[in-house]
Structure formats: C-alpha cells, structure tokens
Amino acid sequence: MNTHSPALKAWGDQVCQHHIPRWRELPQIDLYMDQVVLLVEKFLQLYMPGDDKFITAAMINNYVKSKVLPPPVRKRYSREHIAYLVFICMLKQVLSIADIHALLIDGADPALLPQTYDNFCDAQEKAFAFIVQTGREAPQLFTGTIASLNSGALNMALLAGASKTMAQQFIRDVQPD
Fold first, then answer.
1. In this structure, what is the dihedral angle of CA atoms 72, 77, 81, 83, given to the nearest 10 degrees?
2. 67's torsion region: left (phi>0), alpha (psi -120 to 50) or beta?
3. Domains of the chain, earliest start first
4. In angstroms, what CA-CA distances link 142 with 2, 3, 145?
5. pTM of the model
6. CA–CA dist 121, 138 (Å, integer)
7. What angle do CA 52, 123, 45 make, to 5 degrees?
8. Sorting pLDDT into bands at 50, 70 and 90, what band is 31?
9. Phi and psi at residue 76, to the nearest 5°
10. What is the reported pLDDT for 63?
C-alpha cells in the first residue's frame, strides 16, 4: 500500500487501531432485532467495505432457520446471539454457512463461548493488522501490466483465495467421517 491512495492508507491505519468489543463489553440486556442489527453494523462496519448490507433482519432469521444461530427468546437477542453474529458476519466473507455451522455448532463448546469469542476478536484484529502490513510491505505476488492499485487488489484476492482454501481444508480435516 506504500504507493497507494491516502484513503487506503487511512483505512489501513483505522483497521490496525480498531477494537472489536469483547465479551464483557457486549450488552448484558437482551435486545430486539433492529437493535442487534445496528449494534453489529457498528462493531464491524470498518471491516465490511462497500454499500452492501452485511447484516439484516432477514439474514438473522435465515441463520436461525439454518440453526447456525440459536433462536431468540421472546423476540429478544442476548450477548450470545451478538457474539455468534460477529462470528458469522466475519466468517461468511470466506466460508459457506455450512462450514460456519461446522465450526460454531458442531465443533464448539457453548460453555466456552465467552473465551472463544474474545479469542476470535483478538485473532481477527491480528489478522487484519497482518494483512494491512502485508499489503504495505510484501513483494507483489502478481506483477505485470495491471495498474498498481489493480495489482494490489489482485494480490490481496490471491491471498484471500489461498487462505479460504486452506481454511476449508482445515474444516474438512477435523470433521468426523
């Protein structure tokens, strides 16, 4: 990113300083659907470029129907729901809902959710800091006639694709036959 726009550098700086709220910082009172959508948007908007919605009420309903998110209690969502939604919103960029289900439901102990959530937030922040640093300093994987901004985007897409493939292989490796 050294040769890239000031806006891209500013975004990278913001990402490296961003803090995803940890378990103890999540609301201790149950929230309604619209409140949950606004809260998760606020937590993650920096990580979700573009104008597309990354969380909506309809999406939440679909996650409940597909059993990747527990159902609300009397139309209210707890901090457990918010934690799962943070997991889902971040992971759905690279994994299928079926793979996310395998990670969150099939392979996780609900009693460990607070610690798992905090560890996930730590790892997510480190991953973004790492990728921003990689984008700024790493040699280009793809070189050629593409303009520098496009070349940087292509390099990041190549890394994302390789990382996605490796993550899918890890999931398949730990799933019971």
1. 180
2. left
3. 1-19+124-177 (no CATH), 21-107 (1.10.1660)
4. 16, 16, 10
5. 0.84
6. 25
7. 20
8. very high
9. -120, 145
10. 96
Instruction: Supply 90's token pair.
Output: 């971040």
Opening angle at CA 54, ends 37 and 15, nearest 5: 100
Tokens of 144: 């050629």
The tokens for 18 are 């961003």
Q: What is the largest CA-CA distance in the chain?
A: 58
Q: What does the pLDDT look like over 59-82, one tens digit per residue?
A: 999 999 999 999 999 999 999 999
97-125: pLDDT as tens digits: 999 988 887 767 888 999 999 999 999 99
CB neighbours of 87 closer than 8 A, spacing ≥ 6? Answer: 100, 103, 104, 117, 120
Q: What is the DSSP letter of 76?
A: B
